[in-house]
């Protein structure tokens, strides 16, 4: 797991978390173009957020508990793929042994 995911696991979700927007947008500059991605983070000066995109230069965020769950599922899927690969090698080896008459 990544360090960020480990840090998120320390957060206990409650009703506040569960009823908060799943996705928010930080509005950096509503009069700028969202194509201006080379700007630096302005700090908290003038940055607001909204639960929907309102245009301009903005950054999309996903709620931590949703990210954490998706990351856990992805890690489990990656492990399952590795396990299938390892089992496939064992099956190939055993099939080869059977074909050569090795019991």
Write the SSE topology.
Layout (H helix, E strand, L loop, with lengths): L2 H7 L5 H5 L3 E7 L18 E3 L6 E6 L1 H36 L4
Antiparallel strand pairs: 1-2, 1-3
Describe the structure.
This protein has about 100 residues and is an alpha+beta fold. Helix content is about 45%, strand content about 15%. The protein is built from three helices and three strands, in the order ααβββα. A three-stranded antiparallel β-sheet has the order 2-1-3. It is elongated, with a radius of gyration of 23 Å. The mean pLDDT is about 85.
| Average pLDDT, all residues | 86
- Characterize the main sheet: 3 strands, antiparallel
Number of strands: 3
Radius of gyration: 23 Å
Structural class: alpha+beta
Order of helices and strands: HHEEEH
Low confidence ranges: none
In short:
The chain has 103 residues and is of the alpha+beta class.
Key structural traits:
103 residues, 47% helix, three-stranded antiparallel sheet, 16% strand, alpha+beta
């Amino acid at each position: 797991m990544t360090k960020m995911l480990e840090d998120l696991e320390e957060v206990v979700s409650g009703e506040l978390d569960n009823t908060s927007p799943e996705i928010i947008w930080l509005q950096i500059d509503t009069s700028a173009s969202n194509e201006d991605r080379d700007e630096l983070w302005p700090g908290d000066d003038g940055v607001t957020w909204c639960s929907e995109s309102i245009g301009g230069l903005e950054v999309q965020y996903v709620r931590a508990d949703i990210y954490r769950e998706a990351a856990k599922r992805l890690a489990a899927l990656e492990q399952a793929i590795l396990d299938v690969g390892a089992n496939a090698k064992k099956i190939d080896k055993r099939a080869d042994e059977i074909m050569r008459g090795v019991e």
